[in-house]
Protein 1
Amino acid sequence: MELDEFVGRFTESVDFPEAVEITPDSVITELEYWDSLAQLGVIVMFELEFQMTITAEDIAGCSTIGDLYKLSFKSGN
Amino acid sequence: MARSQVSNVRFVGLSNCVPKSTIDNLQVSEADRPMRERLVRNIGIRYRRKCRDGMIFSDLAEFCARDLMAKIGWAPETVDALIMVTQSGEYVIPSTSIILQDRLGLPKTTLAFDINLGCSGYPYGLYTVGRMIGDNGIKRAIVIIGDQSASEGAADQGRDILFGDACSATALEYDPTAPEMYFEGFSDGSGYKAIYVPDGGKRNPLNDKSTVPTMWPDGVVRTSTDVVLDGPAILNFSTSVAPLAVQSICEFAQVPLSEIDGVLLHQANKMINNTIRLKLKLPSEAVPESLYDYGNTSSTSIPITLSHRCADRLVQPGTKWVFCGFGIGLSWASLYMEAHGDVYCSPVLEV
């Protein structure tokens, strides 16, 4: 999956209540509506898009959306 | 490995009930509405039922058991066993099923005990009781399942919108012509802190601080007598084990997943349940839901879904069913059964 597409899927999966500008350099925890529900959305996205089970700790270990994108390559996807 | 069959046992009928009192998760202030709509959209739960005015879980249990016995024509004196799967007993001790033996007018020759399980409880209840029935065993049993776990106005919003109160009663009977049931049960106690109540047991007895709200490391305000839910851990657990458990029980029963008339999953939340369904590559109509109307109803979410969505199909002889429960413990189980003979299935009754 290309980075642009990943950012799009991320935006869908967190389902923020209003549009928030998200780029590969966005710091995850600084996104205005980042919360526990958004975290669950990202876990589901990895499960379904990459057949990868990632934990809350895995997400916490990523600073930016770009870091999260790199995580998706860990299982060879 | 806990893989087992249940022979000569017929699923005779099922009654379900919920309290009349309804909570609408979207009834919040205008300012909170966008975030709440997002939560409802993703968790999939709009309405929940809650016991009020002194009503408790065992009142629901008594109602279901009476409806069931009346509809399937079982005289109370013919019931050999009354088993409850619940974490919402009337008292800390004794088992609530024993109190209900008397209240329901069942004879003193009825055996009764409670099983302490939550979301995995329906397959466990049917299996445990099914194995007690047989040529040399008991002949008629009622399995009561459910919990009173609805909350309202808790600081922990993620938990507060989740649970609904509900109860069911299932009748099982000795029948040498009944098709086999197949069961598998699993446990992983290493994950018990994903869903637990910290205080009030022997490990951490109730103390002055137990009911004081504090901010936990996960950023949620709760007391130590509230249920602690670790959302990401529950999501990881459920979406890992449930698809495998459904596939495994089909292999054991030697019935392809595509031939199952209904795969009934514990109704945890929409994100968990959709992920399990997509991993199993099943269309939504093969996996009925009751989350939107009743929420997560703990161990009775499978029976509630049967009554809410499948009552017309459950009464058709030969229909094939897989029930998969997963959650607190961590505990999970699956059961395969075929409808046989006249099956009674109530609508979701209101008390």
Protein 2
Amino acid sequence: MTPRSVPLARRTEASLYGLLAVALLGGSATAGDGNPFLPVTGSEFRSALPSGKEDLIKVPGFLLQEHPVTNAEFLAFVRANPQWQRGATPAAMAGGDYLSQWLTPLNPGSHDAESQPVTRVSWFAADAYCEAQGARLPYWYEWELAAAASPSKRDARSDAEWRQQILDWYARPASAPLPQVRQGIANVYGVHDLHGLVWEWVQDFNSLLPADADPEKFCGSGAQNLQQKENYAVLMRIALLGSMQATDTGHALGFRCARDLRNPQ
Amino acid sequence: MKRLVVLLAGVLLYGGGSGLCAKTDLPSDSLYHLQARLLTQSAKSVGFDVNRGHPTLVSMFYASCPAACPMLITSMQVYESHLAPAARNRLRVLLVSFDAARDTPSQLEQVAGLHRIDLSRWTLASAPENDARKIAAGLGFSYRALPDGSFDHSLLITLVDRHGRVIATTTTLVNDSRFLAKLEEATARDEP
């Protein structure tokens, strides 16, 4: 097990400011639950997505869950919301593979499975889960901003060593069992597992490809517009999420929730 | 503040009521399982299933769109103009704006006037971001706000049946004969 929180020295001044903002606004970063919403400092940054004439994207500060939602956390949700149990969910909301890895609609499997990220959830199911927590899925720009951070830098994307580390994670065989959450080192915000564990739904996944792009041709024409071509790991996310339908599910596709900083629950 | 609370309670009660009771007998693959609230050109709050019981053409747009959206609206008018009057009377059309900030009811009403839209069968509405995103997700429609205030978006028309099941889609704004045939079939007779 890794320590529960990052050493204080690793937090930047900016993330401390975020924590302060949460405290002042009456939000709670932990609220006694196992997957706290942590502040990510707002920034103007260069996204890998093309954005027309303007180079810098403004992302206001927001709160992001510490790790991807686990099977145990999702189990609590489907217990409280039986319409989201496997078998009860309409086909228009989740494909046939929805939670198919669980032993039964109310049993994710072994004890180990409880701390693994929940996968095989449709976008609609992920969206409903977050809504039930008084939260939402993160927007792509929010996810990308948080995922640009290393354990020591808010934007580590130009750090070749860090980039290589991420690519090594992606090179792991897809058939390997999913690791548990929070096994690695948190980034400067205290957030775990943005790379190297699962793909994650974002709220606006259906905005990532040019509207009339054919996903199969994405690697040809569509990719020419993408920025930061050296950030393969992030580009792969864009290509994957942009080609999904909202009812799709995947063995390695999970999610986590986010909240506006101004409106903490 | 108090008024706001009462208003919110009203919305919650109304939304919850229409959501839970009406949807239990929907087919599993119906898009009307989507829970989303729309504000129409006449400032009425309705659900995405506002046209339940009628075959319906659905698409998404934004009113300040310079060229593509006017074309989309015209295209939908042309498709329905191919129908016999009785068939056309059975058809409904729903256009959802993903630009709720600018597409107020009066703005939508203006668009309707500009295009001489038949508001007895057409609904123009806007949805807040989360609801618009859900509707887009259900339709397989993609859109993205660009920094200059415009949107990159699909040109996709979806035909759903009386129960909200997708019958056909088209990205061809003129003369998709396969799509037109489905439209004629879906509106040929009253529900048995």
